[in-house]
Amino acid sequence: MEALVPLLAVGDLFPRGIRPYLIGGLLVGLGASLIYLATGIAPGASSFLESTLSYVSDVDRFNRFRYVQSRGWRVVFTAGIVSGAAIWGLVLAPDPTIWTTDVQWWRLLGGGFLVGVGTRLGKGCTSGHGVCGVGSLSNTSLVNVATFLAVAIGTAQLVAALGVAP
Predict the structure, then answer these.
(1) Four-point Cα dihedral 31, 137, 147, 53, nearest 10
(2) What is the pTM of this model?
């Protein structure tokens, strides 16, 4: 019988070393803490999107008082996330082709749609639940993050077992 081979070697968890992940995690935690301390609002990407939609939609969900009241700084924060990623990708990335993918557009669109549905069902996104909710020991967030991880791992295993490629 063949010896069991681990599915993932420990070295593969941090392919560029631990420093970039540690620094990134510290910056995310610091940013979330600063926003919460300054506003009393737990920052999550889905609520940032909803507050941005209050500019162009008359739907009551997007025009809640707290969204309309705080949408100015939320739009600036969201623009900072997007522009920070763009600056890194275009100027600082060790490999400029890191932004390319072989995945078809319809799969990306379908994945984005499913993420949006999951965000609505889970009453928040991975950033809100994973960073702020777990950090505050919210039972709802702990269950949601466990569910997110279980579904993601199961989906990855299913896709790999089916041999689906980009």
Answers:
(1) -40
(2) 0.66
